[in-house]
Amino acid sequence: MSVHPLDPLSVQEIETAVALVREQDDINTPFFSSVGLLETEKSVVKAHQPGDGAVRVVQFRGVDEARDGGFQADVDLSTKQVDVKRVSLASQVPYSFSDFELAVRLTKTNAEWLAAARARGVAVDTEADLKRIQIDPWPGGGYPHPDVPQGHRAMRCIAFVRDDATDNGYAHPIDGLIAHVDITARTVACVEDFGRRPMPPEPGRFDGPNLPPARPGLQPLEIEQPQGTSFEVDGYRVRWQGYDFRVGIHPVHGLVLHQLSLNGRPLLYRAALSDMVVPYGDSDPMHSWKHVLDASEVCLGNFINSLKLGCDCLGEIHYFDINLINHQGKVRTVEHAICMHEEDYGIQWKHFDALSRTGEVRRSRRLVISAIFTIGNYDYGFFWYLYLDGTIQMEVKLTGIVGVSAKAQVVNAGQSPQIAQNLTSPVHQHLFCFRLDWELDGGANQLFENNIEVLPISDDNPHGTQFQNVATHLTREQDAKRNVAPERNRSWKVVNPESRNGLGLPVAYKLLPQGVPTLFASADSPTSKRAAFARHNLWATPYARDEIAASGANTVMHSGGGLPAYTADNRDISHCDLVMWHTIGVTHVPRPEDWPVMPVEYCGFHLIPVGFFDRNPTLDLPGHCT
Ligand code: CO
User: What is the dihedral of CA 293, 295, 300, 302, to 10 degrees?
Assistant: First the structure.
């Protein structure tokens, strides 16, 4: 079977590329942060025909013995050429597992840190004691500690105690203590001690044997497709009900959909997360600096789960496996990493005619393509849903364990509400920026904003009841930095002016946003500069191959990049190969129900056809129920 230019990397491709990197003179003893496919130029991919050879470039990032920001190595598998770029200290490659391991080891062996833990009554004297200590290393960028020289690769380590291997350590924070680790100098630069805080009394376990007895009354609910599924899979290419697309994985962006078309008409060349940030709003010095860029700083893709049938996914499932590497360059295959299946979704349309006492109803169904990533205490599910009526939905599912503070008394419930005995949880946001590379019906696209305008009272509008939809063409990058406005029913529309529907109108797809706030952090703050994408719900740019990173390619210790830099020249977007960036999110005010593990919270957006079809495209659905 021939390889498509966008197929995820095979084991053999990665192994060949790792060997070539090891031969490079300018990389010494590499520790790898990530491996991924460097996607071939769009025009080449589009021209690709089955059976053609494909250009395959493997991109690695990592650190080695050099005390700089790391390396990027692009390995062309056909020419065996390796292009090595050294990365500056000002914007470093993502953290790798070797950085995490080093930070944990340095903290657990630091005399000052151990003394501070001991002073809190935490046992740290034997090997067994230290095994029960859970160290969470956090990125050190944005708010560097003065004891860490500028530009050094830094991490902040916070700690917890587990009763045993499967305990929930977050129930027992070693609070008020931070170890500032200088990864570059391989040392703990400073131990910050904000004073002893009481260990919360209650366990927070939710591992199997420690859960309450299972509730009665839930009868089996089985999903069966006795005649098989309705989708066809060819490698990583999927066809379902007119949709045709490719499934991919990116080390930073996670789950990627490529070349998505419907009934042979292109919609999106590429759709995926670009970056995300989790800024905290609490004044507590244990949390006030937190604003991890969970995608770009640690490589979200490295944390993809292996999914279990009947648990993570229900029904007739097709799984895709994904190949990653560990920090030593060894291939790590994650089986069942991406899950795909069909779901019944209630009714698609219905009408009951009261006069004739007859009616028609059809059922809706959706194709689900999903993956789940666990980063530290949080778990993020990314779910693409394709519907029979042309609707495309992204839903992020947030679960896992909230950040915690040990508090004898609640000091400021507005910044850190109580969630359990002597335990509070700081307010924070989760903001996700999705990059949507459009090719609606092929050719150039335009971007419009729709707002409802309420008409003033006049002779024609005597009761002030009238309103109208007003469409504004966004023609420049600066004009396309927009926020949601539910009070104006705001939405954004991608139009192909050259492609007309049966009514003679240009075809379009509309982005329906949810009513969510943008980043609360001040525009002058390091958080806001480093995660500038989150200042607006919408950005738009003309396609450029290298512009795929909402906050910049290498964000560790970086002061900010990505979208503000991309849009600095205020380029013309009036009629172009349009890329839309949409930031969505959750502002999380934790509650007792979020403890000890958080029920899923959701955020997302919809893309719906507007004149892409001439009428309801689902009239031809079979009527099983009549
Ligand atoms: Co949260």
Answer: -90
